[in-house]
């Protein structure tokens, strides 16, 4: 599961670096257009890169549905 999440984050990181996120159904549509300024994209890219470099420890801090605690329990 973590490998899948990392791959998704790497894809998002690539889109943020390129400055656009293609729509998967409608060709030529950028999902970032008008929603994220370039500065916000770069800031998000740094945050995503930090998550990846932190070996996804951010997952253990997820509070929704006690997911972080459940993941820690699985690893122990």
Q: How is the topology of this model organized?
A:
Elements: H1 2-18, H2 38-53, H3 67-75
Helix pairs in contact: 1-2
The low-pLDDT segments are none
Portion of residues in beta strands equals under 5%
- Report how far apart the termini are: 16 Å
Number of strands: 0
Oligomer: single chain
Structural class: mainly alpha
Shape: elongated
- Topology as a string of helices (H) and strands (E): HHH
Q: What is the averaged pLDDT score?
A: 88
Characterize the biggest β-sheet: none
Percent in helix: 55-70%
Tally of helical segments: 3
Q: What is the radius of gyration? A: 15 Å
Fill in the keyword field for this structure.
76 residues; mainly alpha; elongated
Question: What features would you describe in this structure?
Answer:
The mean pLDDT is 88. It is built from three helices and no strands. The protein is mostly helical and 76 residues long. Helices cover 55% and strands 0% of the residues. The chain has helices at residues 2-18, 38-53, 67-75.
Summarize this structure briefly.
This protein is mainly α and 76 residues long. Helix content is 55%, strand content 0%.
């Amino acid at each position: 599961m973590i490998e899948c999440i990392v791959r998704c984050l790497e894809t998002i990181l690539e889109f943020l670096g390129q400055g656009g996120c293609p729509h998967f159904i409608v060709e030529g549509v950028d999902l970032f257009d008008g929603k994220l300024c370039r500065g916000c994209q770069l800031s998000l890219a740094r945050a995503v890169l930090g998550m990846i470099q932190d070996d996804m420890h951010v997952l253990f801090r997820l509070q929704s549905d006690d997911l972080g605690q459940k993941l820690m329990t699985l690893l122990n």
